[in-house]
Amino acid sequence: MNRRSHDQVEQSRRPGRRGIVGRVLTLGTLAIIALLALSACTADEVKPYTTISPASPLAADINSLYKLVFWLALIVFIGVQFVIVYSALKFRKPKDEGTRPPQIHGNKRIEILWTIIPAIILLVLLVPTISTLFHQDAEAKSGDLTIDVYGKQWWWEIHYGDAQGQNLGVITANEVHLPVNQKAIIRLHSNNVIHSFWVPQLAGKLDVIPGHVNTMAITPKDTGNFYGECAEFCGTQHAWMRFKVVVQSENDFYTWVNDWRTGNPGTTNQDAPAGVAKAPASFAICLACHRVNGMENSNAAVGISAPATAGPNLTNFGCRDTLAAGMLINNKDNVEAWLRDPESVKAGNWMGTVIKKGTLSEQEVEQLATYLESLKPKGGCLSYSGQPVDQPVSYPAASPAASPVASPAATPGS
Amino acid sequence: MASIARPTTQTIARPVIQAPSGLWSWLTTIDHKRIGLLYGVTAFILFLVGGIEALLIRTQLIVPQNGVLTADQYNSMFTMHGTTMIFLAIMPLSSALFNYIMPLQIGARDVAFPRLNAFSYWVFLAGAVILNMSWLFGTVPSQGWYGYAPLTDNSWNPTRAVDFWMIGLQVLGVASIAASLNFIVTILNLRAPGVTMMRLPIFTWATLITSIMIVLAFPSLTVGLILLMMDRFTGTHFYAPAAGGDPLLWQHLFWIFGHPEVYIMILPAFGIASEIIPVFSRKPLFGYAVMVYALAAIAFLGFGVWAHHMFTTGLGPTVNSVFASSTMLIAVPTGVKIFNWLGTMWLGHLRFTSAMLFAVGMVSMFTIGGISGVMEAVVPIDQHQNDSYLVIAHFHYVLFGGSMFAILGAIYYWFPKFSGRLLNEKLGVWNFWLTFIGFNATFFPMHFLGLEGMPRRYYSYGDHSGWAFWNHIVSFGSYLLAASILVFLYNVARSLQHGEIAGDNPWDAPTLEWSIPSPPPPYNFREIPTVTHRDPLWAAKYGEGHAEEQALDVTVGGKTIARSQAPDESPAREAARRDPVEENTHIHMPNPSYYPLIAAFGLFLLSVGPLFDEPRIHYESLHLPLFSIIGIIVLLLGVYGWSFEPAETPE
Fold this sequence. Notes:
The complex is a heterodimer of chains A (about 425) and B (about 650). With about 425 residues, chain A is α+β, with helices and mostly antiparallel strands. Chain A has a domain at about 265-380: Cupredoxins -  blue copper proteins (Immunoglobulin-like), CATH 2.60.40. Chain A has helices at about 5-15, 15-40, 55-90, 110-140, 250-260, 285, 330-340, 340-345, 350-355, 360-375; strands at about 145-150, 155-160, 165-175, 175-180, 185-190, 195-200, 205-210, 215-220, 225-230, 245-250, 320-325, 330. Chain B is mainly α and about 650 residues long. Chain B is built from 19 helices and four strands.
């Protein structure tokens, strides 16, 4: 049969072209409205880990690239889906009337066209991709201060140095403090498994690989709290390896550095002369793995050479928002729960292999929690307000997470 | 299979070879169709296992700080879910289709090495058993399906969990490579007269190219796993940085396998869509040659993009730029395929059967996965998206929206060939729309979670992470998706009993498998057909260009058996109708054999030996696993018997 008569037959029984286009557009619009409506439901939620609200120039670069790709992708998406839905509506023919549609085996010109056009679109993406990559690399060569980050199972240890990497004598856990508008070079180290350091608002993620040192630059443009997380599966508690980045004014930052260097002078020796601050005697157990700046006998190993059992630096513990790498709010109840039985709170953690249920008496637990909460600088904790704090859930005694059956493979290493 | 009564006429003699029945006949079968069914049923059961693991994952994440699973249980779930779906579900489901359909499409009586084919299946089963045996011993792998070193090292994973995974994958590699070599040789050598390479159905092309990829890609995984085995069993330090090893070595070896693996899973889907869409558009595939070249180009480029999985490992801007370029390049042939499918549908007479719904759904959903893939090729964007939920969304749009949609479509399409009965179309349409809605409700919101910074493999999250809302939706979506699979299972169960009898060619499809009875006799083609066109049945029925009536001959055994004046006759039917008794001489068919099963069982024993501390033979400092020693003996016996077994019963 010839093509024309075929088309005439078809047109007489199908709705007109505009009708179909209209239906497709209506459907598409409805779908988009529904999605937007759903998105609106979440608008009130705080998004501490959002990737599309950058607060540093390099993160802003990523976001502008993302916007470019997003719009191009949206055009391609709508184009392809439109053709599919349009064809489905326009050409559907449930009943075989014995006729054959035009048997088109191909069309070289069209095929060449739809090979070349995508290639051009991709080239448009490739150029800024490559230039951004080299820019990132150049930025990471030198900065105003050097931060060494050590990924542990499952927390972060952060060492601070000046532009030349000269040690400032400050070591924090799960909190990175940065002065605003200064370029920090972050060097990432691990002596255990692979982690990935990710503060979505400040930079893309970069892996923390044993045997390699990866380097990235962060120049925060706003003061405030930003939130980071581990983004490479690193074992049992990968989900709770969060951290906070506190961006302060330069003044605040150096006040904080001095506070930290002074630390919390004291001793666990109950016979020490009056005037020396005394920690509970049982705190000596803690000092086997933890450090407190200024504290006597506080010399647990840190950094890359620290054994897996070494724990976070506890200096100015009372100023911290969270415990157990973002898992718990730092309050006395949670600290007590943690000290009573770390394994039941965060299965697989190293402290749980040393401190078991009953290792510390109830009195010791109470004393230690009180003492830890009291570890603050003389002038009090600096307020780092800027953004709402991501308050992790408080640790209820009867949380379902509290009664897990430990799996045999729970404890990595031994 | 043999249970379906076929109308017999006087002129059709009893089949030359009757399909045997009973358990023994299945254990010793070397019939590619039965092996295909074994693959299919096993893989679908394992697909359900992987699905249950996925549902547990989603139930854990449905609300913040949920306690349905412990951290380690959750980690085991996602490890086993990934490993199961990739190696035990999607790959063998494709294998099932390759086995069943490909020899029929090229007009062959079986694959080139039927006993090797049986061996591949039994070894695949052994690998699946080894992986899932870990549940019984309480040492379930929990290091992720990609098993990044050094987390797999004894220092961080001292239990046997990693060993089950490592050895299971090693065994599965044997099965995949053996099966693939078989398919390659079959396609290159056993094509019926006239089936030139450029007349192969695209599904057969996909089989060939996928098989070549498997043969080239798996050795890299094998090497990686051997190094890991040495690290774990004999104390070497290939991946241990403290002793001079490098964990990135594993990532390179793994992804040199792992990225081609993605295409190994999606190319069969491309093949399936290229079969279904033309049939239900009543048009030939648009741009056949370009579709073939695109498949080949994707396969070739697929070996040069592995480091895009490693964009955040600090390979440096030069390496990252090169791999960003190659990754974007691969989008070009992929795009061509999508456009050519659209070109096939354009102006066609579309029949939206369930198979067509799934095939078109696949094109639509895969496009979304392809677009997000290009997004991730832009390295700076990937610095955010890598290892976030956006990546999970991306590859589920590829592997579920692409591969699984296509496989479900393929089952609707070829089920009549397997069983002689059609699947119920009404249920099929329900099945499709439930799958479509459930799938999108599950995976689309994951894009948002990725943008909100939710990383993969988190067993728990706080109230104020901002991820609660979409996780709710995702979890409910996953239950809907599960329900759609139940509809599918019900449809299969019901249609096996009560489905409409299909006949040889219920869809009026153009390829050779539709020229023979459903289900096909053990020998497939009574006489090997001679093919003169790319779409032989359409050419025979509708004419060379498929549109106009013109005289056109299809010959079997040198005789013209199909002309336009007898359009409804299929070549083989016609051949059967001609004086069958006289021509009913001898069809060369190999005998069943139990040696492949024995050899595979030997390999199984050999492999599980190192997984147990006892029984071992202790000799000085050696502790040889007893099972392995027995296994080697059984394997050798099996191979010996296999080698000297006569291929046919002497007459």
